[in-house]
Design goal:
single chain, about 290 residues, alpha/beta, 14-stranded mixed β-sheet, globular
Amino acid sequence: MTVKIASAQYDISFLSSWQEYQQKTERWVNEAVKQDAKILLFPEYASMELASLFGKEVYSSLSKQLASMQSVHDDYVALFKSLAKQHQCLIQSGSFPVEIDTGVYRNRAYLFMSDGSVDYQDKLMMTRFENEQWFIQGGKELKCFDTEYGKIAINICYDSEFPMLARKQVEMGANLILVPSCTDTLAGFHRVKIGCQARALENQCYVVQSCLVGNAPWSEAVDVNIGTAGIYTPVDRGFPDNGILVAGEPNAVQWVVGEVSPTSCAVVREQGQVFNYRDWLLQKNLI
């Protein structure tokens, strides 16, 4: 089984209306679907461009952004739910800061299924900015999702830099890990990229990274965005020698599309030149 995945290098916009956001989202999804993509990945905090709808007093304030965003949350979910069903594809829409209790927010990555169902993974490991300035709290549950293309997991940005998280998801059956990311320095981008490639190497699976790109000087939350989307693979027989199936042009606005075969992960784990996945447990005998 093979499936085409589209990973977005998505540009942050200053919006004049909800309709403008809806049209932009529909345009992006249509462009990916035209390339026969069946799994679409948007970047972390791509939704924060919606804060521009609420005026300078709101979008220039970290706390007021979060509170105001809740008023468009249901419309956001409904939009992506409709598009996934309409185009019969899976859409990971990036992430949205969701208020789960009064003044308590989590960075949530929704996964929209082609049958109209919806699930989500909350970010687990929070960056200093999220902890110390934005006060967004980490989630508590690590998930693995059953889909028509096999089991899929999500590591939101910084989560991808912690190997035990991805390992547990792969042990739960995931052969594909989606990594929506948002980084404001080249070093930050490379931290996530290196994490993604390391997770693909260790677990002999696919890892897909999406990046927010462009500048939004009006927003303290997503003012600078740097990155390159990519699809990363095991580094073994039958896969690219550098473990990179495809990567975009740095900071360009584009879809990065590649075809993967999640079922091939089982083959390389049994017949590969090395057995990173199988030999993981041997570490415990040495430490």
